[in-house]
Amino acid sequence: MILKFKLLAVAFAIIPFLGMPRIALGQTEGPSTISVQISALSLDQEIQNLKFLTNGEVNELNVFTTSRSNVHRYQGPPRMTFFREKPGVDGEVIRTPVGSVELNQSAGRYLLFFVRQPGTAEQYGILALPDSLSDFQPGSFRFVNLAPFNIAVQLGEERFMIEQRDFKDVRGNFEHGTRYRTVMVSLPNGEDPVPSYSGRVFFNERMRMMYIIFPSEGGQPGQIRFVGIPDAVVREAGR
C-alpha cells in the first residue's frame, strides 16, 4: 500500500541550498493553545541544549543527525519557538530565539527537521513532518525526498514515485527480517533518467524506517545520497 502526503513546510523557504518552497498549513481560525508531541532530527549538525516553553515551563531539546531525539510534549501557541538562554543583569534571563515552526493540533505528533541557516550566528529553518503512529506505522517505510527532482523507486515488488520535496509512506506484503532489493532512478527536469541507487533495505515489522534523500552536493544532476533513520520503539513524552 502506498500512502502519499504533501510536506507541511513553513521554514524551508529561507534555506537556500535546499530551495524548499514555502507551503502553508492551511490553518485559519485554529486554537490559541495546542498540545502535541514532538521529536527532532538535524539535517546537518548536532544541536545541544535548545530551549522551548511548554505549558509555561522551560524544556530542553538535544537534536542529533543519525537518530531521533527523545519525544517531548509541547503545550503552547501553534507557533513553537526555540531559544537560547543566558544570564543578564540583576539575575534576569535573556532569551534569544533561534528558530520557530507552525504546528497544527490535528497532526498530534511531529518530527521536526532542523537545518542551520548559512551566514547566521545561530538560526535554524525547521520543517514539521506529521509523525503520528496511525499514519506512519511500525512495519512501514517512509521516504522523504529533499531533492529538487522526482525519484522513481522499486522496493521489492512495490513501484512508486516520490515527488520532489515530498514524502511517501509505503506499507506492503513484506516479510519480517528480510532484505529487499531497492532501485532508485532520479528524474531531473530536462535531463535523462539517472540511476541513483541499487541495493537492499531491511524490513522489520516492529520498526518505522525513514529514508531521507538529499541531492548530492557537487555531483552530477540526479545524483543523490540518503540516510536511514530507524524508530524501533514508542517512547513516552519527555523520556
User: How would you write the strand order of the largest sheet?
Assistant: 1-13-10-16-17
Overall number of domains: 2
> What is the arithmetic mean of pLDDT?
85
Q: Low-confidence stretches at least 5 residues in length (pLDDT < 50)? A: 3-28, 235-239
| Global shape | globular
Query: What profile does the largest beta sheet have?
Result: 5 strands, mixed
Number of strands: 17
Using only C-alpha atoms, the radius of gyration works out to 19 Å
β-strand amount = over 45%
Number of helices: 0
Helix/strand-derived category reads mainly beta
Helix and strand pattern: EEEEEEEEEEEEEEEEE
Helical residues, percent: under 10%
Ends apart, CA distance between termini: 32 Å
Walk me through the structure:
With 239 residues, the protein is mostly beta strands. It has 2 domains: 2-130, no CATH class; 140-231, Immunoglobulin-like. Helix content is 0%, strand content 52%. It has no helices and 17 strands. It has strands spanning 2-5, 34-42, 47-54, 57-63, 72-76, 79-87, 93-102, 109-116, 124-130, 140-145, 150-155, 158-162, 166-170, 178-187, 194-203, 208-215, 224-231. The strands form 4 sheets. A 5-stranded mixed β-sheet has the order 1-13-10-16-17, with no helix packed on it. Strands 5-2-8-9 form a 4-stranded mixed β-sheet, with no helix packed on it. Strand 6 and strand 7 (93-102) form a beta hairpin. The radius of gyration is 19 Å and the shape is globular. Residues 3-28 and 235-239 have low confidence and may be disordered.
